[in-house]
UniProtKB/TrEMBL annotation:
EC number(s) reported in the record: 2.6.1.83
Cofactor(s) needed: pyridoxal 5'-phosphate
Principal EC category: transferase
Domain of life per record: Bacteria
Keyword hit for Chaperone: no
PANTHER family referenced in this protein's UniProt entry, alphabetically: AMINO ACID AMINOTRANSFERASE, ASPARTATE TRANSAMINASE
This protein's name: LL-diaminopimelate aminotransferase
NCBIfam families given in the database record: PRK07366.1 (NF005613)
GO function terms (MF aspect): L,L-diaminopimelate aminotransferase activity; pyridoxal phosphate binding
Domain Aminotransferase class I/classII large: 31-382
Organism (species): Planktothricoides sp. SpSt-374
CDD domains: AAT_like
Gene3D superfamilies reported for this sequence: Aspartate Aminotransferase, domain 1 (3.90.1150.10), Type I PLP-dependent aspartate aminotransferase-like (Major domain) (3.40.640.10)
InterPro entries the UniProt entry points to: Aminotransferase_I/II_large, LL-DAP_aminotransferase, PyrdxlP-dep_Trfase, PyrdxlP-dep_Trfase_major, PyrdxlP-dep_Trfase_small
Length: 403
């Protein structure tokens, strides 16, 4: 049996390796503390669950959901966006309901790229961005994100020959995995660059609310006429609805129409009750969002403080639910080896930076998906592992007393 060549780049998966390593650690008797996956452990808002529950006995919600049946949800999403970012949105032509933002970012390349066209992607970046390009038989040019540049790409470094074949650029800030943020001036530069080179500007925006200092801008605030831009939102992070698979896109009407065409060939929309839950979340009290942000703030402070006390100096992230840590010697070029050996020795699972791209090598990502006492226990085990591999010096017992 033969398969399409476009599947070849998708066969190698660092995260599958980590999943196998976690299973082996459990089999060996370790209690695994999984900090490798950004799957929220926080509760879905009560108003969303109540709306979904009420829908279950309403037989009018049990049929297929085509585009026009999503009108109420699209109107709510448009109002939510306008109130939050001050940019007017037409819910009929500039909003599309999705089965999570990952579906949208993975399917959009099918609407934009011809075989051989380039997509400009962040490195490190979210794996599904590359997966969608491969499935569209496109080529990838990676834009390295370096600490000295605030983990922002340098557009002037992109070769002219690549730009001549490029059709889209994908950005995502606040950024997974680095937790970096981007100012409005950066998005203004990105919009102007994409206008100049006739590129579609894709902004994946799942962490729009998970910010611990100032608010972050939407790309459409830099492209108010929506000339080249489309932005993807999800209910998974702010509202802890990951398992319900609900998100939406807002942006250029032609891009929305093209993505809608792709979506129509692949799937119907999900159950109406889930849309009702999302509507309730977006229109109800936003105290649930505030509580989620404060939960991650406490976890961030606990985890980073504990790492610093064991001698692993890590900067305090200003956004997202992740900590992006530069690996100490001798692990600077072996993030996969570090994560595999650490989970085998301690049961603590993290995501190797190399799994997010070549420029992610030398880093590891921790997801803050446990309460502070569990995070403190995890850091204590991490410290034991690091000292056993001579990665950090021995720390006096008094220095680790709070861990």
């Amino acid at each position: 049996m033969q398969f399409a060549k476009r599947l070849e780049p998708l066969r190698s998966n660092v995260f599958a390796q980590m999943d196998n390593a976690k299973a082996k650690a459990r089999a060996a008797g370790h209690q695994v503390i999984d900090l490798s996956l950004g799957s929220s452990d926080q509760p879905t808002p009560k108003q969303a669950l109540e709306a979904i529950a009420a829908s279950l006995t309403d037989t009018t919600t049990h049929g297929y959901m085509l585009f026009h049946a999503t009108k109420e949800f699209r109107e709510v999403a448009a109002r939510w966006y306008e109130q939050k970012y001050g940019v007017a949105v037409d819910p009929e032509t500039e909003v599309l309901q999705l089965i999570g933002s990952q579906e949208g970012t993975a399917h959009l390349p099918l609407a934009v790229l011809n075989p051989g066209d380039f997509a400009l992607l962040m490195d490190p970046g979210y794996p599904s961005h590359a997966g969608g390009v491969y499935l569209a038989s496109g080529q990838i040019y990676t834009m390295p994100l370096r600490a000295e540049n605030g983990f922002l790409p340098v557009f002037g470094d992109i070769p002219a020959a690549v730009l001549a074949q490029a059709r889209m650029m994908v950005l995502s800030y606040p950024h997974n995995p680095t937790s970096a943020m981007a100012p409005l001036s950066f998005f203004e530069e990105a919009v102007a660059f994409c206008q100049r080179h006739d590129l579609v500007l894709v902004h994946d925006f799942p962490y729009c609310d998970l910010v611990f200092s100032e608010s972050v801008p939407s790309v459409l605030q830099a492209d108010r006429d929506k000339t080249v831009s489309i932005e993807f939102f999800t209910m998974s992070k702010s509202y802890n609805m990951g398992g319900f698979r609900i998100g939406f896109a807002i942006g250029n009407a032609e891009l929305i129409r093209a993505l809608r065409n792709v979506k129509a060939a692949i799937d119907f929309n999900q159950y109406r009750g889930i849309l009702n839950g999302a509507i309730a979340a977006l229109t109800g009290s936003q105290d649930c969002v505030t509580a989620t942000v404060e939960t991650y703030r406490r976890r961030r402070d606990t985890f980073v403080g504990a790492l610093n006390r064991i001698g692993w100096s890590v900067p305090l992230p200003q956004a997202t639910m992740y900590v992006w840590a530069k690996l100490p010697s001798p692990w600077e070029q072996d993030s996969i080896g570090f994560c595999l050996q650490m989970v085998e020795a301690t049961g603590i699972a993290a995501s190797p930076g190399a799994g997010f791209g070549k420029a992610g090598e030398g880093y590891v990502r921790f997801a803050l998906v446990h309460e502070p006492p569990v995070l403190e226990a995890a850091v204590a085990k991490i410290g034991t592992f690091l000292r056993s591999t001579n990665s950090i010096p021995a720390v006096p017992e008094a220095a680790t007393a709070g861990i």
